[in-house]
Structures are given as structure tokens and as C-alpha cells.
Amino acid sequence: MQRYGMTIPFDGLPLHAQREAIVELADRGYTDVWSSEADGADAFTPLALASVWAPTLRLGNAIVPAYTRGPATLAQCVASLADAAPGRVAIGIGSSSNVIVERWNDIPFEEPYKRVRDVVRFLRTALTGEKVKQAYDTFEVKGFKLGRVPEEQPKIMIAALREGMLRLAGREGDGAIINWLSADDVRQVAPIVHAEGEGKEVVARIFVAPTTDADTVRAMGRYAIAAYLNVPVYAAFHEWVGRGEVLAPMWDAWKAGDRKAALEAIPDEVVDQLIVHGSPEECREHIGRYVENGVTCPALAVLPFGLDPVQAARDLAPDQ
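Above: the chain's sequence. Below: its structure in C-alpha cell form.
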């Protein structure tokens, strides 16, 4: 079955007012809803609501940071969601970024590969109800035993950018969650995951603006791209996929403190590669290229570019 997801919650609506919109996603052919966690809603509450409102939808996190909850607390959060929606949960664990982890949460952003690996290994054990007494490389758990074990184990996905984490996702995760990349970049990324294990998922968080106002998308898209691609982990990823030369002027201006010049240095072609826009039909065709290149579940994220996100979800629905 081809999966097709939408990011929730929708911008502009309080959580308690989103029931009809989420039910409509299921009615229009969406198979998944995916949450994120940065400075808005947490990664679990929107999915808990959706688990009751739309019981056919799979519930995924894209992503939960590996640092910002202690291991035992994270296991409880994951187990509670999996217990509420048996067989419908895919937990995405990732390193997040130095901005969210260090600057916002005052937690050292150290050894991200090892931290993600250790959290995934801990969850694999803890979610079965086995008592955990283990010194991992990045933390130690001294005798935690989960008191509420889910009937069905959730999938555990790993957010991955470059080769090391992609291999980890294929080897120890149920697949990878990828982000801020073009459809063509998927050809470089997906095979690394699949080489580590058959049947692994590749979920892509795809930023979408279904509008033919290309000037607005490019102008506003530059702000979104600058906000992410100047974060070290994303900058390194885009160098790895071969976008270093075209993005170097933006990185140089940003490091010099000239934000205006940094925005102006982002070429239209980069915006068009990383943000899906155009008519709904053009957007669906572009999303289809991600799938053709190896994405098993597009997880769409409607950008707040003056669009009604609920109408955008209707326009992008797979049943159109």
C-alpha cells in the first residue's frame, strides 16, 4: 500500500478545533498524520487526539529529539501513544539540532549519532517491559522497568541526513525519516537505507505550498531555507548532496552577519527544488517524483505562506 501523510497540527487552529480537519484527511485518502516538535505543539498531544478522532490513520513523529526527554520519560510517552493506538504508531527519533537542544533547552548537543543510536537501543528494550540496567555511551539507566507495556511494539524510525545516520536507520531502525531535500536527492539517500535492510521505510517530510504565486513562495521560502540550512547539521547535509557551491554565498553572508545578503544569495532553483509549489496538480506530480525515487511515505507539511492549510490538504489529497 502506498502511504500518504500530512503534518499536523494545522497552523491557525487551536488543537481542540482540529477534529473535523483530521477526520477529513482520512476521508480523502491520507493514510498517515505526522507531528513535529520544535517551538509549537509537542510531538505527542496532536497524535493522541488524532488517535481517537481518526482511528484509521497511522500516527508518526517526525521527529522527537533524542535529547530533550530523559530516557525513561521518553519511553513512557512512546508507550502511552502505542497503547492508545495499537499497531498504528511510528516513532521518529532524531538528533534535532544545536539550536533546539542547546540554545532552547540548555542541554549539551554532544555525540548526536551515538545519542540517537543509544536512545533507539534503549527504547527497543524498555518498550518490551524488560528491566533496563545499562550504561550506554551517552547515558546510563539504572533499573528502569516500564509499568505499562504496549500490546504491539511501535515502529521506531530514525531521522537521518548523511550516510552514517542513514545506515543506522536501515540497520537498527524500521527506516529513515528524511527532511529538507529535493526529489532528486532521494536517489542518493534512499539506497543507503535499503542497503542495510530489506523492507525499510523512507518517510520524507516534504514542504509544500499549493499556489501558482511563485514570487511569494520564493520570497518567503528563502526565509525558511535560511533558517534551516544555516544550522550546521543541515549545511553539512547539503554539502554532501552536492549543493555546497550554490549555497556557499548564502552561508558566507550569514556567517558575516548580513542576513539580507544571505537571503538574496539563495537562487530560485534551490527554492524550487526544496519547496514543492505550483498548482495542486503540479504539486502532486512533484510529490510523485519523491515516491518514484524511493520515498515510501511522503509526509507533507503545508508552509504558512498565506494559504489555508486545511484547504491546501484538500487540494493535495491523493483522492483528487
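The two ends are 17 Å apart (CA to CA).
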